[in-house]
Amino acid sequence: MKKNNCVFPQKNMNQKVLKAFIELANTGNFQRAAERLCVTQSTLTKQIQALEAELGLDLFSRIKSGTILNKNGHLLFNEINNILTAYDLLKNKANTLTNPNNLSVAFGMATRDLAPALINNFMTSHPQKNITLIDLPTAAQSEKLLAGELDLAFMREQSGTFLKQMVVRRDRLLLIYHQSQKRLMEQQNIIDILSNNIFLCIDENICGGTYNIISTFLKNTVATANLKEISSYPNILSLVKENFGCALIPESACHHNEHKDILSVPINNPLTIWNIVMAWNERFNNTLRDEFIDYCHEVITTTSGRPVSL
Predict the structure, then answer these.
(1) pLDDT at 175
(2) Of 76, 189, 216, 284, which is most buried, counting CB atoms within 10 Å of its CB?
(3) How would CATH label the architecture of 15-79?
């Protein structure tokens, strides 16, 4: 009999515990993770301890600037994230079958601030509706939109797709570094910096789209480039804050106002600028989706002062 390699939660690995792991991995900070999960730090600590006890593994390491995944945590991050995504998709599928007032919306790192805010504001005038947010990478969003398994997605703009797209913002690549390196950075041009340093970047398996943007840009601008892949943006920021190296990350992931020791420089190149869009499949009718799109179009156009439809 063929073995099933999927990992399923055991007795202590309920959704709350798994979400606690993902949120702490993504924020790198117990206080911020607890706030986002709406629990106390003590509860979050107990949830992480329960998961580690169930697995028989330590998953995090503490550094001066926060908490980062250790080797075990890195190896299990994708598996745990996939389990939570599968739960969300199953729940959404069941809700869709029983309630036509439901809407499934996917988002990623680039719209972690924008997508929830738009949905919360929309829901104040549509309290009878139910919108489920699902965290998915762009490739998975496209696949599920085309299959009709997802109603709407905030994602990186796609070319050569049947999906309808509406630009909601632009993103770009930043070079970030520790403030102690400021003078050295200012004395070199960007090409020399990129050619002579090892750079941290997001793991290709975590965010393949961003990794491809970085690698394509480097291949087209420098002779040689050394990249070290890291499993999450908070971990990258923590390592840069501790002066373990420089990094290339999207502006949407660079909350360095929370890391006062980190400085950033935008990389001005057509290869390092891209659109973030709302995408949907017009082959599937959904009145609530269309209402939400109209609402977002109005809000974004008013905010940006320019039309956003493609």
Answers:
(1) 93
(2) 76
(3) Orthogonal Bundle (1.10)
Residue spans of the domains in the chain: they are 15-79, 102-167+278-304, 170-273
Dump pLDDT digits (tens) for 172-229.
Answer: 999 999 999 898 888 888 888 888 778 899 998 888 889 999 999 988 888 677 889 9
CATH number of this structure's domain 170-273, picked from the four choices 1.10.3210.10, 3.40.190.10, 3.90.226.10, 3.40.50.2000 = 3.40.190.10
Architecture of domain 102-167+278-304 in this structure: 3-Layer(aba) Sandwich (3.40)
Find all residues with CB under 8 Å of 275, minimum gap 6, and list them: 156, 157, 167, 169, 170, 171
Task: Tell me what pLDDT residue 24 has.
Answer: 92
Exposure of 77 by Cβ count < 10 A (0-12 exposed, 13-18 middle, 19+ buried)? buried
